[in-house]
Amino acid sequence: MATDIQTSPDKSSSERTALIRAGLRRRHLNEQIFRGLGIAAIAIALGFVALLFADVFRKGIPAFVQSNVHLSVTFDAEVIDVGPAPARGDFASDAEYTAASLKWQRDLALLNWNTIVEASLRKAAPEGFEIDSRQIQSIPETNARHQIREMFVRDPSLLGQTVEVDVLASANAANWIKGNINRDLGDAQQQLSPPARQLIDIFVENGTISNGFAWSIFTNVDSRAAPASAGLLGAFVGTLWMMLIVVVLAVPIGVAAAIYLEEFAPKSRLTDLIEVNINNLAAVPSIVFGLLGAAVFINWFHLPISAPLVGGLVLTLMTLPTIIIATRGALMGVSPALRQAALGMGASKTQMVFHHVLPVTFPSILTATILGVAHALGETAPLLLIGMKAFVASVPATPLDQAAALPVQIYLWQGNENRNFFEPRTAAAIMVLLAVMILLNGVAIYLRSRLEKRA
Amino acid sequence: MKTALFASAAVIALAAFGTSAAFAQSRDTIQIAGSSTVLPFASIVAEEFSAAFPEFKTPVVGSGGTGGGLKQFCEGTGDNTIDIANASRQIKDAELEACTAAGVTDVREVQFGFDGIVFASSASGADFALTPVQIYKAIAAKVMVDGAMVDNPYKTWNEIDASLPNQPISLAIPASNHGTREVFQEKVVTAGFKEAGHPEGMSEDDIKAAETTFRQDVVIEISGDYTETLARLNSDANTVGVFGLSFYEQNTDSLKVATIDGVVPSKETVAGGEYPVSRPLFFYVKGQHIGVIPGIEEYVQFFLSEGVSGEGGALEAAGLIPQPAEKTAEVLAAFEAGAQ
Q1: Is B309 at the interface with chain A, CB within 8 A?
Q2: Which chain B positions have a beta carbon within 8 Å of A142's beta carbon?
Q3: Any CB–CB contact under 8 A between A179 and chain B?
Q4: Which of B15, B22, B48 sits opposite A249 (nearest CB)?
Q5: For A350, which residue in chain B has the nearest alpha carbon?
Q6: Do A252 and B9 touch (CB under 8 A)?
Q7: To which H or E segment does residue A244 belong?
Q8: Which of B8, B48, B58 sits opposite A394 (nearest CB)?
Q9: Largest interatomic CA distance in chain A
Q10: Which pTM does this prediction carry?
Q11: Chosen domain end from A46, A61, A76
Q12: Domain CATH code at residue A350
C-alpha cells in the first residue's frame, strides 16, 4: 500500500486521496474485525462459564434442602433393658469405669432401636394405615436409630419418656418428595413400595415431613450407610489440613529460593539450568506429582496412606514453582534505584533485600500464594494416587489421620450408586468448592489492592 | 522481617520433626481397599462398626478394583500397607505368591455373601431375553459359521437370534481390573462358547484365544465404576451394560434388566441358584496385622454377624445376597482358627 503511494508520485492528488481513503477504510475494517473477534472470544468464554454455573446451580441448589421427619419418640423401657448407666462413683479406677461404660454402650448398640423408630412412625401415621415393617422403615434414614441411641447415651434419664425428635428422611424418600425420581413410573421401577410412597405423601401433607435447609451437608461426615446424612465436614477439614501444610511449607521455601536465585546467586550456567527446571516443574502435570508422592512419601518415607500430611506435601511440591516464579517476577520488578539507594546508604546486601526490596514485593507474593493455594485446593489427580479416594467417615483430628478432600469427595459422590440422590449432592459439593475458591481469590484481590495502596 | 524469617525457619524445622515423628506413630485405623462391588457393603459395615464399637475408629475403605486391592494388600506388612482387601473373586495363585514373597504369609479368606451380575439396558429401550451363547456370539472376535471360525459377522442382535431386538450390538463390560470381568468371562462367555461349539481339532491355546478375544468395535471396556457404565448407556441407548445386581436395584428407574436363560435376576433367584451369573464376595484379612492394628478381629466378627450380613441384616437392605448361616459359621471358624 505504502509503496504504491511512494512509487507513483505523478498521480493526481484526487487519485492519491482515494488510495489513502481506501487504505484507511481497510485499516478501520481490520480494527473492527479484530474488536469483533475479541468480543466474540470473551462472549464464548463467559458463555461457557455461565453454562457451567447454571448447570451446577440448577442441579445443586435442591440438594441444600433436606426432608426432616418430626417424630415423638418414646424411649420404651421394654426395648431398652440394659440396666442403668454405670456411674463413676461405683468404680475404683478410671480404667474400670471406662471398661464398664464401653460395655454398657456396646449393649445399647446391640439393641434393636429400629422398633423404637418404627413405633414412633406408626404413631404419626393415620390410624389403620396398612404398611409392613420393612416398608415403613424405608421412610426414615438408617441413621435415625443411631441418632436416638446417642440421645439416650448422653442422657440415660430419658428412659420411659417421650420426646420430640427430628430425623432425616431416607435418600429414596427425599428423591420421591423432591421429584428426583419420575413419580409416574410403575411400581417395578420405583425404589419405594406403594404404601411407603403413599404414607410419605400423607406425612408431607400433615406436616410430619417438612423441608429445611440441609445443615447436614456442612456438619456431617460422608456416609454410605445413611446416604441422606452424607456431608462434607470430613473432606473440608482434610482440605484445611492440606492447605495449612501447603502454606507453611511452600511459602517460606518458595520465597527463600526466589530471593536467593534473584538477589544472591551468581548468574551462571548452573543458575540458568535451575531456572529452566523450575519453569519446567511448573508445567509438570499434577498426576506426575501424585506418582512421585506415592513412591517417595508413602513407599520410601513410610508416611501413612490417605493422610492430609502426604497430600499437603505433594501439593506443596506442585505449588512451589508457582510461588518461586511469581516472587522472582516481583523482585525483578523492583526499581534498581531502590536497591542502589539502599546500598549507597551503606546497607549490606541482606539488609537491602530484607529491609527495602522484600517489603515492596509483599503484595505480589501474597497474591501468588493465595492463587497457588486456590489451585492446589481444586487438585484431584495426585490425591487419588496417594490413596485419598478412600471412604472416610470421620473428621481427621491431625494431619496424620486418614481423610478425604473436597475435590475427591466430589469424585466419590459422582460415583455413588444412588444416582438420583447423589447427582444433586455432587453439584452441591461443587458449589461449596467453588465458593471457597471465589472467596480465596476475592481475599487475594482485596489484600493486593490494600497493600499496594499502602506501599 | 527478621522475625518472619526465624518463624518460617522454625516452622520448617517443626514440619520436618512432624514428618519424622510419623515413622514412630502406629496406625489405629483399619485400612481397607479393593473391589468396587464390595465397597458399598464394606463402607456400611465400617460405619455401623464404629457405632457399635465406640472404642475403635471408623475403618477407612478405599476402592481400586479387586486386582488393585489385592496388589496393595500383597505389598508387605506394616503400618503403611492395608489390612483388608475386598474382592469380588477368589485370590489367584499368582497373587498369593506375590503376597508370600513380600512377607504376607497369613492371608485369611472371608466369604460373606453373593452378588448377581446383570445385563441391563436403558429403561426406554427394548426388552432383552439373553442366553450366554447369544452374548458370546455378540462379542467374540471370531465365531463358528458352517463349521469354521470366521470373523464375527453379526451387526445387530436379531441377526444372532430372531427373538432379539433389531438394534446394533454394543456391550459395555467391566475391564480386567474388576473381579466382575472374571465372572463375566467364566459364567457367560466361556459357557456360551462351550455351548456354541467349535471346529474339531482346535488346540488348547486356540480355544483360550477364541474365548477371550472380543471384538473391539462393539465392546466397550469400563475400568471405572458402574456409574461410568450407566453414563455410557445414557449417552447411547443401544448399549447393553454389565452391572452388579445391587447397583441395578438402586437404579431401576433408569435401567431395564435382561433375563438370562429366561430367569429374571433377583435376590431370590440368585440365592436359589436359578440365575446363572452370580459370584461369592470375599474379603482377605492380613493375619499378621491382627493384634497390631486394633479392631480387626472385632470388625470381621461384626461383619459376619446376623444383623449385618445375615438374612434381613443391614447389608441385605443394601443389595447383598446373604449366604446360608451355616456357611457363615464355617467361614468365621476358619478365620478364627488362623492361617490356612
Answers
A1: no
A2: 314, 317
A3: no
A4: B15
A5: B2
A6: yes
A7: helix A233-259
A8: B58
A9: 120
A10: 0.83
A11: A61
A12: 1.10.3720.10
Cross-strand pairs, B263:
B260
For range B133-145, the mean pLDDT: 89
* ipTM of model: 0.79
The pLDDT of residue A111: 81
The total number of residues shown for chain B amounts to 340
Q: What is the pLDDT of residues B253-293, one digit of tens each?
A: 889 999 999 999 988 898 888 898 988 999 999 999 998 89
CATH number at residue B235: 3.40.190.10
Q: At what angle do helices A94-109 and B39-52 cross, to 10 degrees?
A: 130
Taking contacts as CB-CB distances below 8 angstroms, the residues of chain B near A189 are: 123, 252-253
- Structural domain boundaries enclosing A105: 64-228
On whether both A168 and A273 belong to a single domain, the answer is: no
Question: Are the beta carbons of A390 and B252 separated by less than 8 Å?
Answer: no
The C-alpha of B14 sits at a distance from chain A's nearest C-alpha, in angstroms, of 10
Assess whether A290 and A262 both reside in one domain. yes
Q: Name the band, by pLDDT with cuts 50, 70 and 90, for residue B23.
A: very low
Burial A125-155 (b: 16+ CB within 10 A, else e): beeeeebeeebbbbbbbbbbbbbbbeebbee
Contact B43 A224 (CB under 8 A): yes
Tell me if chain B has a CB within 8 Å of the CB of A357: no
Amino acid occupying residue B256: K
Residue B225 vs residues A27, A65, A223: alpha-carbon distances, Å: 57, 28, 18
DSSP conformation class of A90: G
Interface touch A109/B8, C-beta < 8 Å = no
Among the candidates B230, B253, B278, a domain finishes at B278
Query: Do residues A206 and A97 share a domain?
Result: yes
Separation between Cα atoms, residue A323 and residue A256, nearest integer Å? 10
Given an 8 Å threshold on Cβ–Cβ distance, is B5 in contact with A393?
no
- Are B90 and B72 contained in the same domain? yes
- C-alpha dihedral over A73, A75, A79, A80, to 10 degrees? 140
Question: Domain for residue B103, yes or no?
Answer: yes
The verdict on A306 touching B (C-beta cutoff 8 Å) is yes
Range of the domain at B229: 116-278
| Spatial separation of the C-alpha atoms in residues A323 and A250, rounded to whole Å | 8
User: In this structure, are B241 and B155 located in the same domain?
Assistant: yes
Q: Which residues contact A430 (CB under 8 A, 6 or more apart)?
A: A56, A60, A410
C-alpha closest to that of B92 among B176, B172, B175: B176
Q: Are residues B267 and B305 in the same domain?
A: no
Cell numbers for B250: 438402586
> Which amino acid is present at A213?
F
Residue B219 carries which side chain, given as an amino acid letter?
Answer: V
Half-sphere exposure of B37 (CA within 13 A, CB side): 34
Interface residue A248 vs chain B (CB under 8 A): yes
Quote the cell numbers at residue A206: 400433615
